Amino acid sequence: MDIRPEDILTMKKNHPCGCNEMFVIRAGMDFRLRCVKCSREFMVPRSKIEKSIKAIKHADEG
């Protein structure tokens, strides 16, 4: 799966604040994500993230 920093991930489940879009800060074995609505940052393992992605909006696509 091609996920790069500055991409926006649409997740299957909502964050507790109600938003389901996450901004990718760092990608690797672990992902550092930031919630688009409440700006909370958290680390999640790659295996867990890849299962819960609904859509990817790449930064260079506008």
Characterization of this structure:
- The chain is mainly β and 62 residues long.
- Helices cover 10% and strands 42% of the residues.
- The chain has one helix spanning 46-51; strands at 8-11, 21-26, 30-35, 41-45, 53-57.
- A five-stranded antiparallel sheet has the order 4-3-2-1-5.
- A hairpin with a 5-residue loop joins strand 3 and strand 4.
- The two termini are 19 Å apart.
Question: Strand arrangement, largest sheet?
Answer: 4-3-2-1-5
- Measured between the Cα atoms of the first and last residue, the distance is 19 Å
Overall number of strands: 5
Largest sheet: 5 strands, antiparallel
Strand-residue proportion: 35-45%
Which whole number gives the mean pLDDT? 94
Considering DSSP H and I runs of 4 or more, what fraction of the residues is helical? under 10%
Unreliable stretches (pLDDT < 50, length at least 5) are none
- What's the total helix number? 1
SSE ordering: EEEEHE
Structural class: mainly beta
Cα radius of gyration in angstroms: 10 Å
The geometry reads as globular
